[in-house]
Amino acid sequence: MNQILSSLAAIWGPWAQSGSQPYFWLPDRASTFARDVDWVFNFILYVSLFFFALIVALMCWFVLRYRRRPDRQEVEESPHHNTALELLWSVIPVILVCLMFYYGFEGYMDMRTPPRDAYEINVIAKKWAWLFKYPNGYVDDKLYVPAAEPVRLVMTSDDVIHSLYIPDFRVKQDLVPGRYTKMWFKAIKPGEYSLFCAEYCGSGHADMLSKVVVLEAAEFAAWLREAGDFLKKLPPEKAGEELHRRRGCAQCHSVDGKAGTGPTLLGIWGETHRMTDGSTAVVDENYVRESILEPGKRIREGFVNQMPTFKGVLSDEEIGYLIAYIKSLGGSAKGESP
Ligand code: CUA
User: Fold this and answer.
1) Of 211-220, 226-235, 250-259, 291-300, which gets the smallest average pLDDT?
2) Is pLDDT above 70 for 17?
3) How far is the CA of 211 from the centre of ligand 1 (A)?
4) Could you tell me the CATH superfamily of domain 234-334?
5) Per residue in 40-52, pLDDT tens?
6) pLDDT at 16
7) Which end of the chain has a smaller Cβ tally under 10 Å, C or N?
8) Distances from the Cα of 73 to the Cαs of 61, 63, 67, 76, 128, in angstroms?
9) Average pLDDT over residues 235-262
10) Per CATH, which fold does 22-65+79-113 belong to?
11) What is the reported pLDDT for 108?
12) Beta pairing partners, 129
């Protein structure tokens, strides 16, 4: 079977099957799946185009050829039956759909079965950010992976259904709250590739953009070692600023004074805010901590609670850095809690 297919692939031409160069309108081919996925895609596309053209052309020709004319009012005699023709138009499509099934199924099984030695990274999706958790506990909002090594993602969602989509790798998989889904790939070459959410998950859906950064294996190991303790090397408010960006806070909480899905963090330290239940709260250490761990408990007036809890995602130390960062953004207390 494979021999027939590879000879077919040869006929298919260098334009559909060659190397890792992107073909025509398709994205870059940056994973080992890309070539096979493109092959099946092109095969189905061109078979469909061929039959579309053939059928429409025949249809037009028949309409013209057999139209009613002044000199031909009666219906013409036509043969009832043509065994050769009927066999031809049944057998050829059967072969074609069997090929499509074989290729599609083979590719699907390959994509569903990660190699045993795959490098594992945990993924948590939440409104509206991606968190990638590495084996040493480090969490980043970008997906860093080693090149030429199989990587398995074990994924879940904190709230609604999201879908992790990396077009250049030709992989896409839903993340469902309350269960784990898996996906794997092998990146071919170092570089940066786009990563999207492909499931409409709410008003911040379009903000769920991230990157896959593919590094050479040695570089990746070095990066992971370095990244694991980057927070300790920064002053607290800088560490908080990094966390604000890397843990997805920035998607909802701006630092320029504009309200987003959540309130801005600019100039709120020490301010007294009115809550939706009519009470008031002073923005201090305890209030910020509570808002991170139990976002639904007290909600600022003018907002609805859309925030997932960060319990188990942010450590006490990290919450401390975030508090230092919010302090540094100013407010009536000028960095001091009243
Ligand atoms: Cu998450 Cu769309």
Assistant:
1) 226-235
2) no
3) 15
4) Cytochrome c-like domain (1.10.760.10)
5) 999 999 999 999 9
6) 46
7) N
8) 19, 15, 9, 9, 68
9) 88
10) Helix Hairpins (1.10.287)
11) 93
12) 126
Residue 104, pLDDT > 70, answer: yes
Which residue lies with its CA nearest to atom 1 of ligand 1? 162
- Alpha carbon of 202 to ligand 1 centroid (Å): 7
**Which atom of ligand 1 lies closest to the CA of 204?**
2
Task: Name residue, tokens 């099984």.
Answer: 109
- Cα–Cα distance for residue pair 300/268, rounded to 1 Å: 12
Q: Residue 7: its pLDDT value, please?
A: 54
- Compute the distance from residue 163 Cα to the ligand 1 centre, in Å: 6
Domain ranges of the chain: 22-65+79-113, 119-228, 234-334
**Which atom of ligand 1 is found nearest the CA of 127?**
1
Q: What is the pLDDT of residue 15?
A: 46
Give the ligand 1 atom nearest the CA of 202. 2
Distance, CA 75 to ligand 1 centroid (Å)?
A: 59
Of all atoms in ligand 1, which is nearest to the CA of residue 161? 1
Percent of residues, the chain, with pLDDT higher than 70: 91
- Lowest mean pLDDT segment, chosen from 57-66, 189-198, 227-236, 316-325: 227-236
Q: What is the CATH number of domain 119-228?
A: 2.60.40.420
| Residues in contact with ligand 1 (CB, 6 Å cut-off) | 125, 162, 197, 199-201, 205, 208
